[in-house]
Amino acid sequence: MNVLIAGANGKIGRRLIPHLVADNIQVRAMVRDLRQKADLEILGAHEVVEADLEGDCRQALEGQDVVIFTAGSGPHTGPEKTIDVDQNGAISLINQAKAQGVGRFIMVSSMRADDPESGPERMRHYFAAKGKADDHLRASGLNYTIVRPGRLTEEPPLEKVKVAEKLKDFGDISREDVANVLSETARSELENREFDVIAGPTPIREALDAL
Questions:
Q1: N or C: which end of the chain has fewer CB within 10 A?
Q2: CB 56 within 8 A of CB 32
Q3: Is the pTM of this model over 0.85?
Q4: pLDDT tens-digit readout, 133-163
Q5: Does domain 2-209 have CATH number 3.40.50.720?
Q6: What digits encode the pLDDT tens for the residues 33-45?
Q7: Which residues participate in catalysis according to the annotation?
Q8: What span, in angstroms and rounded, lies between the C-alpha atoms of 179 and 199?
Q9: Which letter does DSSP use for residue 157 in this model?
């Protein structure tokens, strides 16, 4: 399997590379700056390509079976940057992935993306941008999986989660556990599905198998 990670030098993308490589997946890391190449190759990326989300990504997408979108401006940037990356950048890559014949698109979204008004006011622009990108992916015709983690932390991984198509309560999850969830999702048959995920009591693979 050939997988393109968009946002490979981000906090989730960097953690995802070793998980995919351990599963014998060929990883192409997409970055905005090739000065990051050496670090990502150390993590295990088989190839590092330079491309901008809103620019021409055809070369990066060529020959890829799956795209995993881990890029993000972060919830604490201003609305303009968030719309550029989390909304417009994601939509552009979805469109190009479909045109290039990519088989599947896995989106890292966020809990509350489907209901931005339920979150803190300072983060509503972030949830709204994620939600619009998710809507576009659902309507794109691509096989998709939308992964909606809760509040991201730098805590050590628990390797256990709570998942559901819609969780009642917001919660935390470490970025390392999100990376593990994404790796398991890439190897799963969870196509045209979406789910919330936070730290919980169930081993990751078991939790995903139960969806």
A1: C
A2: no
A3: yes
A4: 999 999 999 999 999 999 999 999 999 999 9
A5: yes
A6: 999 999 999 999 9
A7: 126
A8: 13
A9: P
